[in-house]
Sequence to fold (478 residues):
Amino acid sequence: MKLKSQERGQALVIIALAVVGLFGFSALAIDGSRVFSDRRNAQNAADTAALSAALAKIRHEDYMQAAKDRAADNGYAIDANSSVEVAFCSTLSGPDACQGIPTHTSTPPTTEELELTNPANYIQVKVTSILPATFARIVGRTEFTNIMSAIAYAGPVEPKPLVDGYALAAMERHDWDAVLSTGNINVDILNSGIFSNSDYGISGCQHGSMRTGGNGTISVDTAINTVGSFCPGTNSRIDAPAVNQGVGAIDDPPTVNIPNFSCGSTNGSVSTDSAGRLIVSPGNHGNLNFPLAGEVIFSPGTHCFNNGLTMNGPNFTADNVKFLFKGGEFKLTFGTMTCNNVQVHVNGGSGITFTGTGHIYCNNVTFFLSTGDVTWNGNPEYRLYAPIGGDYEGLLFYVPPSNSNTIQINGNATCEMTGTILGVSSQITVNGNNWTTGLNSQIIGDTVSLEGNGNMVINYVPDDQYQPIDPSAIMLTK
Fold:
């Protein structure tokens, strides 16, 4: 049978039409999935950027740069393929106007409602992303554009004292004598009180959530509050406006972001300058154990110790440095160390020891202990002051919840310490002998023990302590 001439080539036309349809379905499947995936990523980038901008604004930092940096971290930098716009909602109108800002319901509105409904307290971040098309080019589409936005509240937020501002607080939930005073020590807490989070309590009061013993006196300006029972000793005395048992428990304080130190592959060195001083350059060090004479200067930068650092004689100076202990111990036994603007992180090391007759005088210093403990032995003299600004303002010692090692502090009339000591999993022991001035700290542990003889005064000043911004106050509204 012969084919008619007009039927020739029909299969080719059908195949060509089928190919167009096939590419169309491919464009829908491949390009469509890319577009939807990018929408999710761009929205996540906008959300995190808006929250970063809000936090930076509350901290009086560069909120616009914070938003752009966070968006860039998520793959949306300002370039040919994406853009990031940051603006207060009070400056936007028309199609760009912010959505989702609440309205007040009271007449007249309360002060809180005025803050929550004020567009000037909201920041919008808009992320625009351009994706080149692949198969969609067959049907004439060369690119796709996703525009995603997020709005975060960045209004007035005041930092809050940890654990409702108690100068001494034990966060242990169930064990007995979470706060314990023994010996003949007299403790006077100014401008604050004591809190025990333990619900322990038995009849007869042999032990309790808090217990005092010996012949000392516990005096507070506000109150002693315990979740469980309070057990005063037979010979001890209590001087407090109120002693409240059975109060509500308090959640643990929020965790602190520990800075990430790194020395890379750079090795540190020790050299002698023209004045005969030992100059320690930044980088990786083995075990440094200095002789009993001379002067040692740690140059600015990051110093990483693989096997510890022992200071047992000379005079040490460390300004604008970061110390990372990956092994060994940070130990001062003799001599004098002066420092300013210092962060010490023990991460793999065995801890920090101040012992003997050493002297340490440091301003703007924070000690982080991911591992190891803190120990005072002997009769060292020290003056330690937490940072007065930045992310760790008011934080002197921080032991994260994952580290349950102990913190032991000795103090006397020549010692001064300002800033928060925070270790919610640590047993903290404070041994004070006539420490009547200089202890200006908030002490928060799993348990807290007060020991020693003579008088100890804790002067609690909220502005000198670590007061983080409540993250729940910074919220996305869209």
Observations:
- The helical segments are 10-58, 63-73, 111-117.
- The chain has a mean pLDDT of 87.
